[in-house]
Write a structure and sequence with these properties.
Layout (H helix, E strand, L loop, with lengths): L3 E4 L5 H15 L6 H6 L2 H13 L4 E7 L2 E10 L9 E8 L8 H15 L5 E6 L3 H9 L3 E10 L2 E10 L8
Length: about 170
């Protein structure tokens, strides 16, 4: 069904991996070295996502378009001990050709529902500082800038920023 967001199943690991690699190669072109992006391995990502999907604490959702799975998002307990936040949107990626159709908003809604099931009442997300489209997306959802920190991806030192929602009710879809 077009526009459907549903909990991911183990059989979705390959599609999630394909989207993960493809979106990294487009979203982070110019931010990360071309050889690093070219080295991303779909099979390795599929195995990683199979492990994640088997974890009872993980909340992973996929968005389906007419062409199959076109995006995914994951979330759960905040992972880094950030003061004031218990929930975290870990990842959200939608294929370029499927953007602008509401998949991102629906994926965030699904993650938020998962956080509520876990009895978490707030959320933080980390995004590369220079990823302006993603930052604009979080700002449109009502995310408030929290702070910036360095992150190393491969051999590249970058900056990432966080956006937070002190209550899940503050998210503006």
């Amino acid at each position: 069904m077009v526009g459907l967001v549903r909990p991911a199943e183990i059989d979705d690991a390959g599609a999630i991996a394909r989207i993960h690699v493809a979106t990294w190669r487009t979203a982070y072109r110019g931010m990360l070295p071309d050889d690093f992006l070219a080295s991303l391995d779909e099979a390795a990502y599929a195995e990683r996502w199979r492990r994640i999907l088997l974890e009872p604490s993980s909340r992973v959702y996929v968005a389906q378009g007419g062409e199959g799975v076109v995006g995914f998002a994951s979330g759960g307990r905040e992972r880094a001990g950030e003061d004031g936040y218990e929930g975290e949107l870990y990842a959200i990626y939608v294929l370029d050709e499927a953007k602008g159709r509401g998949h991102g908003r629906r994926l965030v809604q699904a993650v938020v529902a998962g956080l509520r099931e876990m009895r978490l009442g707030d959320m933080i997300v980390w995004v590369l500082r220079d990823n302006h489209p993603a930052r604009s997306f979080y700002e449109r959802l009502g995310g408030v800038y929290v702070r910036m920190q360095p992150i190393t991806i491969g051999s590249t030192l970058l900056q990432e920023v966080s956006y937070g929602w002190k209550t899940l009710d503050a998210i503006t879809y």
